[in-house]
Amino acid sequence: MTAMVKAEGVHKSYGAAHILKGIDLEVAPGEVFCLIGPSGSGKSTFLRCINHLEKVNAGRLYVDGELVGYRQKGDRLYELKDGEVALKRRDIGMVFQRFNLFPHMTAVENVMEAPVQVKRETRAVARERALKLLDRVGLADRAGHYPSQLSGGQQQRVAIARALAMEPKLMLFDEPTSALDPELVGDVLDVMRDLAESGMTMVVVTHEMGFAREVGDSLVFMDGGVVVESGNPRDVLTNPQHDRTKAFLSKVL
Amino acid sequence: MTTDIEKKGPEDAVPPAGPEAIKAIPVRHYGRYVSAVVAIAAFAAIVYAFAQGQINWDAIPDYFFDDRIVEGVGQTLLLTVLSMAIGIVGGILLAVMRLSRNPVTSSIAWFYIWFFRGTPVLVQLFVWFNLGLVFEYINLGPVYKDEWSDFMTPFLTALLGLGLNEAAYMAEICRAGLLAVDEGQTEAAHALGMSHSKTLRRIVIPQAMRVIVPPTGNEVINMLKTTSLVAAVQYYELLRNAQDIGQTSGAPVEMLFLAATWYLIMTSILSVGQYYLERYYARGSSRSLPATPWQKVKTHLLSFSSRQGGNA
User: Fold this and answer.
1) Three-class HEC string of B21-59
2) What angle in degrees, to the nearest 10, is found between the helix axes of A152-164 and A107-117?
3) Nearest chain B Cα to A105, which residue?
4) Residue A79 near residue A86, CB atoms below 8 Å
5) Is the overall model pTM greater than 0.90, yes or no?
6) Is B248 on the interface with A (CB under 8 A)?
7) CA A226/CA B234 separation, integer angstroms
């Protein structure tokens, strides 16, 4: 089986700042893959490389067997055109720390936007499915609300519904609960747990160790732009092998 | 309505279980009384001076709907609309050029804005008007060929002069609007598979409009008044026609008042339009939309009548 995400020696730097220093990892289809680590460790940057919001400087990154952002002919790489990159992004949903809902559209319009504009679905079809998705994340009664009229947790659940509307095969979560009030975190995690049970492949950058332990299939601890330790979340979290991992976990657990 | 409230009686106005409302003697602002009296006196003096002056007020209503004045108003409006259209289209184009990653287009846009904002619009109008001294003919190959003076009519001079100048100002307004939209919006749209142009059209520009519309409304009002400058390049709009009538009818000052009144009427109407446009683009940005003036009047009337009902 082809890995859903495969990274081989991925490097990324902004000018002199070397953020990713050779990341190797594999995410199997249907897996919930958690990335943890201190801030500045490069885990969000790596996530953004997966859907080519950031360009990789060295190494190879594959999604579902296809190279991200480039086409390989012989041993030459050709950069993909904007349209081709956009086409690939359709299959990868992304949920942001700060929700990034479109503030000038209601919840249901947010969810409908991409299917109508990108997939050319009719408004009626897209609307019906958007309402179903909002129902799935528990917000059927908030369809007509603007993001400013929703709580953070509700906004994040709309954002998940918006990403699911494109029927992606892979979902990326960039610290989805970090900007939420503690009491609202649970609702979002419930939706993510439900999504994991439905068999969605998920790469989750998170500080929610409880979620990683219960729902995660694999876990990677990153620090200083490298993978320090990886394995089964329950093993890594309860019995870390490296000193860096131990030090980090002793602070957050 | 009033009877309905009277039936409830005044006791209902204050909830019986609530704490006792504070009754205190308000602070007296003597300074405010004094300044109000001074301001009224100054205003009255000015009104009196004008009433005393030898102004033939009757000439204003006589000429208010004169054919030449109405024609002038039409020309002023036409020029305002067309120059703003050039300004807005050019401004968006320049703003996108200025923000593009291509260094050539962004420098050209920078240069354009630098030049057209840095020189007075009246000078620009004169330059367009006198460009015939530099170019004898206009020659667009097989498409069009004519003498410059026939090609560059006063109307085209006015339109180019005002429109191209406006584009420079609109470019800065549009640029500020585009930059005001959070970068996360572009990222979210891209992550959903939307193209650059679609992201710009569906996500960024509608949000930028909230920042762009208010200053653009000011620009329209400014443009309406700036059109009076084109009288200097032989274009007959409101001011020029009013001055002509003033010269022949022997009431020059009166005709200037007449023109001023027309300008005031037009700018007032534009301000109302601007209010509703801003309200439209504010949707989603605040929890509830601001009331329209009509709604405000209605609530004031209602609260007034209920207050009266409560006292009765």
Assistant:
1) CCCCCCCCCHHHHHHHHHHHHHHHHHHHHHHHCCCCCCH
2) 20
3) B284
4) no
5) no
6) no
7) 73
SS3 label, residue A78: strand
What is the phi/psi pair of residue A13, to 5°? -140, 150
Average pLDDT, integer, range A26-39: 95
Q: Give which of B122, B215, B188, B189 is closest to B161, Cα–Cα.
A: B122
pLDDT in tens, B180-191: 999 999 999 999
On whether any CB of chain B is under 8 Å from the CB of A89, the answer is yes
Angle between helices B205-226 and B67-99 (to 10 degrees): 140
In angstroms, the CA B130 to CA B134 distance is 8
Residue A107 is encoded by which pair of tokens? Answer: 């919840």
Which two three-digit tokens encode residue A5?
């995400």
> Which residues lie across from A79 on neighbouring strands?
A70
B183: closest chain A residue by CA: A100
DSSP A145-187: --GGGS-HHHHHHHHHHHHHTT--SEEEEESTTTTS-HHHHHH
What's the maximum distance between 2 C-alpha atoms anywhere in chain B?
89
Return d(Cα A146, Cα B127) in angstroms, integer.
Answer: 51
Two structure tokens written together for B94? 């320049």
Q: How far is CA B44 from CA A2, B31, B60, B261, B264, in A?
A: 88, 20, 22, 20, 21
- What is the complex's ipTM, to 2 decimals? 0.94
